[in-house]
Amino acid sequence: MSKEELMQAAKEACQHAYAPYSDFKVGAALLARNGSIYLGCNIENASYGATNCAERTAIFKAVSEGEREFTCLAVAAADGSTAHPCGICLQVIHEFMPEGQVILEENGKIAEYAVKDLLPHGFSL
Ligand code: THU
Question: What are the structural domains of the chain?
Answer without folding.
Answer: 3-113 (3.40.140.10)
